[in-house]
Design a protein that fits this description.
- The chain has about 60 residues and is mostly beta strands.
- The chain has a single domain, classed as Ribosomal protein S27 (N-terminal domain of TfIIb, Single Sheet).
- The chain is built from no helices and six strands.
- The strands form two sheets. It has a three-stranded antiparallel sheet, with no helix packed on it.
- Strand 1 and strand 2 form a beta hairpin.
- The mean pLDDT is about 90.
Length: about 60
C-alpha cells in the first residue's frame, strides 16, 4: 500500500473558544499564544505560554477550524 502525499498540510495550532472561570465570559484564544492571554471583561488569566503550546486555565468549550 502506498502512502498518499498531503498536498496542503494542516496546521498544528488552532483557535479555541473558552469560558472564563471568574465571569463566565466566552472568548476565542490561540492555543499556541506567545504571551499571557487575559479575559477582556475581568482581566483574569486564561492562558499562559509554555514554550510552544499554551497552558489553558479556562474551560475549553470547543476547538474552531
Amino acid at each position: 500500500m502506498k502512502k498518499k502525499k498531503i498536498l496542503i498540510p494542516e496546521p498544528k495550532s488552532k483557535f479555541v473558544l473558552v469560558r472564563c472561570p471568574e465571569c463566565e465570559n466566552e472568548q476565542i484564544i490561540f492555543d499556541h499564544a506567545a504571551s499571557v492571554v487575559r479575559c477582556l471583561v475581568c482581566n483574569s488569566i486564561l492562558a499562559l505560554p509554555k514554550g510552544g503550546k499554551t497552558e489553558i486555565k479556562a474551560k475549553i468549550i470547543k476547538y474552531l477550524e
